[in-house]
């Protein structure tokens, strides 16, 4: 019997996995699984502490591993761009490592916000399954239960984000997309306050996200039909040889692009962003606004530079339209916003549009500029959301803009930090936002996209208006008598704000180290 | 001593002062209100000391400037962001030098004059005195001084842009937080206008860099290399427009001027002096340094348009100024008129015109500064900005009225006062090339006589109003603040040669770059007669 089986099936050799190169990825996933075990077996009182050590320690360790991988000369010596690992499914190349490092640092900062628990500031509901307003919910609140499943969920999401931009074939990319999205859908619905809004956000995000995943998958099918493979390099070769059906190819590009543009929140696929950013617990919003954006841009860059790199004449006009629409929609609608989180959401849409101008350049300079911009923006946006978590009244975060009136006189430090983040989003010199904007616009002009840059600066000028209005409100208006108070944050949130301010200033005044790092990461483009 | 980094040191002193001021412990001070007041006094003294030290350094530097020397002196260049080819490069030619000196002179004057402004002394009556942080105001002033010196000293276009934009932030807070009346509206309008202009300039700056990188060599922002860049005429025109719109908003040139009256009316007198006296000059300075020298052919192409705008600005500003009921607003509109005249002189592209325009920038800074400050002293006494609330002030406060008259006469360019020399040069320089605009601009000077003298008549002469009957005359601090300005107005009116000697080589250099030579005036006598007749 055994003999027959052995004869029938060809011998399957175990795939060769380059554990060392993939160690950051494996560590994060491993710790996520360990976190689930903690959730199952550790006593309730000890869970938070164990999770904190696992999550923060794990992210830090993964960051160190990323540096170790990046500095190993066997990978990057002699001008080699990197290598493709794990049976050609994961590309560990220079842009990947830069993105990994950035995501890990930003995820670390986001976890600092997630971990905030002082002064009833825990942003998460005690029991996600409890119906809003039900006795169970009240019981949980009275018992002072703290939510801890969020830590392994975050690690799973971060793992997915690490894999997403590194995926070298479309199926791996799809799996990564789902791994990063599913925990985010869940976490969006776990806000402690305004639970219905939060659950609505989760529902919207899930439905729209599921649609976009379906489009993405459909696009994969088209491209497989076109090239007979899901591997990016094979698709690129097939596209270059011009053998398959052009219909399948263009339909595939469009559907794939749609799925990715949805994730970065580019217009006209941006409508989920304000609702989700507003409803989700603010630390999760920070995680999405920084890490998810970077991961999605990483994947977008890889697909459009590697798989469709030779077709840039075909996709560029469409991308132009998307970029212009994104910059315009984000900036114009931001002007009318009255909720701080929605304002930051629309601002994030517009910022995604600015990065798209560099993506369109399809050059090493464009890639480097995108990488720098995303890193600089990510740190600042986490800081900004951290400040949002601090301004509170009896009902939780006072997200409505009018409640922020006169904040500058009550808490000059917190308001000053927020104003600084707004100034960097507006792209005023001596902040990281200016350096980033300069880098992307320079890459775009060098790539011949001058009209896009003009739209970009006009959009920046429009977008400056809501920022300035917030500063006016905080500093030039008199405080309302029953206005919100700024709670004294624990060391976690303070650290996130401080890192945000410091990084924004340093990247504005001495940006050269990170710029040359991004340049080094990008000058060989992606490995094929 | 030739390698001593004069400009960097001069720029760093106010910044260090700002840090010291900002680090002074804030409220609540031990000892309550009295303790707070002594702390505020300390802050003010530190501010004054740093601005005086800066002035001393800059005077020492200016004395070492050799007019016949290289184009840019006290140069220093350090790599800043090699990725973009950006260097921290500073250096001054004659034009930049006189503007830096003007800035450094105005600064201690403004500090002295706005000694009590942060406590809301100059606000109109009925407005609750704002409880604002005194030290923040003075820290912002000092930061602004660093940036003003930097913007004139930068010889790297990127560095210039950084100062040009970053300068907006302290001024925005000074208007919005410490201003009076519609300060929020004015601050937002100021920032939005300037940002829009700045962003358009950013496109041009980046494009310039990208073009400089054509042909294989690395891109650069260095002014000295960009000057010799070969650009097609069409490209030049677009880039010129990118820079020019930013400078036209900053200057401000009609029709981009509408932010200035609002901002100057809402700002404290001291802030208004810096706004009109220095920040506006950044616009006209930028026109000479960047619009003309980087894009000479485009500058010639656009000259008719710019001259038309400038002439409209001269007449429009003057006519609107006549109708103003608010003191500060009136002075702001006179500036719109004068900035038009400066622009006219620059784009006449003659040596008299540009020398006169540059000299005018300096003189206008002093004259309008004095006018704003004295008006501010008056407003602080009567708590009103409305002209109609004054009358007969010269009988109760003769010194104040007398100095106001001198500053006002400088505003209408009375011979013997500094502005006359510059205005005359501008008009002569313009007339030799563009007769009609020069004639129209001269009409603007007649209008200047109307708005200045009528303002003086309504506020200072006539029967003493009850509300000003107990108005005290200028205090020692206030005299110390405006005295030097008045002295400079008189001295430069009689003996402008030292300044002209510094300006002339730089203007000559600009004209060489423009391939522009002075036309030989067919009837030099006519130009003089024209001028004399108008007056």
Structural class of chain A, please? mainly alpha
Biggest β-sheet of chain B, characterized?
Answer: 2 strands, antiparallel
Radius of gyration of chain A: 23 Å
Number of strands of chain B: 2
Largest interface: A-B, 37 and 34 residues
Could you tell me how far the N terminus lies from the C terminus of chain B, measured between alpha carbons in angstroms?
48 Å
The shape of chain A, in one word, is: globular
* Structural Rg of chain B: 22 Å
Q: Roughly what is the average pLDDT of chain A, rounded to an integer?
A: 87
Please report which band the strand proportion of chain A falls in: under 5%, 5-15%, 15-25%, 25-35%, 35-45% or over 45%: under 5%
Description of the molecule:
The complex is a heterodimer of chains A (528) and B (535). Chain A has 528 residues and is mostly helical. Helix content of chain A is 73%, strand content 3%. Chain A has helices at residues 2-8, 19-41, 44-71, 73-76, 94-114, 135-143, 150-166, 170-188, 195-227, 232-241, 246-264, 272-279, 282-307, 312-335, 340-361, 364-390, 407-410, 412-426, 432-446, 450-476, 491-509, 512-522, and strands spanning 82-85, 90-93, 391-393, 396-397, 485-486. In chain A, the strands form 2 sheets. A 3-stranded antiparallel beta sheet of chain A has the order 4-3-5. In chain A, strands 1-2 form a two-stranded antiparallel sheet. In chain A, helix 9 (195-227) crosses helix 10, helix 15 packs antiparallel against helix 16 (364-390) and helix 19 packs antiparallel against helix 20 (450-476). Chain A is globular, with a radius of gyration of 23 Å. The model of chain A has no long low-confidence stretch (mean pLDDT 87). Chain B has 535 residues and is mainly α. Chain B has helices at residues 6-23, 32-64, 94-113, 134-153, 157-166, 168-178, 183-212, 223-226, 233-250, 259-266, 269-294, 296-322, 327-348, 351-382, 393-396, 398-411, 418-431, 435-460, 476-494, 497-513, 524-534, and strands spanning 73-81, 86-92. Chain B has a two-stranded antiparallel ribbon. The mean pLDDT of chain B is 88.
